């Protein structure tokens, strides 16, 4: 399993109560499953509306189980932002 950093922004950061935390995961789906297990309340609801960047690249519509994570990589959790 890859050791990755999950970084939370805006509403996700507020719901998690931290700006970032480490996880061991092979895919984005694995990482998000671990996040939901650790934060079963509001963050789980926020994640349903989020988009994700993996090492700076947007995940887009790819299935989370197909998005491989790399050792030392970063998962950015981006809730919808108001304004522009």
Structure description:
The chain has about 80 residues and is of the alpha+beta class. It has a single domain (about 1-80), classed as Beta-grasp domain (Ubiquitin-like (UB roll)). Helix content is about 25%, strand content about 30%. It contains three helices and five strands, in the order βαβααβββ. The chain has helices at about 10-15, 30-40, 40-45; strands at about 1-10, 20-25, 50-55, 55-60, 75-80. It has a five-stranded mixed beta sheet. A hairpin with a 2-residue loop joins β3 (about 50-55) and β4. The longest helix is centred in the middle third of the chain and has 11 residues, at about 30-40. It is globular. The N and C termini lie far apart (about 35 Å). The model has no long low-confidence stretch (mean pLDDT about 95). It holds the Pfam family ThiS. InterPro entries: Beta-grasp_dom_sf (IPR012675), Mopterin_synth/thiamin_S_b (IPR016155), ThiS/MoaD-like (IPR003749). It comes from Streptomyces griseosporeus. This is MoaD/ThiS family protein.
CATH architecture: Roll
Radius of gyration: 12 Å
Question: For the largest beta sheet, what order do the strands appear in spatially?
Answer: 2-1-5-3-4
Question: At the third CATH level, what is the topology name?
Answer: Ubiquitin-like (UB roll)
The SSE string, one letter per element, is EHEHHEEE
Q: For the record, what is the CATH homologous superfamily label?
A: Beta-grasp domain
Pfam families: ThiS (PF02597)
Organism: Streptomyces griseosporeus
Protein name: MoaD/ThiS family protein
């Amino acid at each position: 399993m890859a050791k990755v950093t999950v970084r939370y922004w805006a509403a996700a950061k507020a719901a998690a109560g931290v700006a970032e935390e480490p996880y061991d995961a092979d895919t984005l789906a694995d990482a998000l499953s671990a996040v939901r297990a650790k934060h079963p309340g509001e963050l789980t609801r926020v994640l349903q509306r989020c988009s994700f960047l993996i090492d700076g690249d947007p995940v887009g519509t790819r299935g989370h189980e197909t998005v491989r994570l790399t050792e030392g990589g970063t998962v950015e959790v981006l809730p919808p932002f108001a304004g522009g």
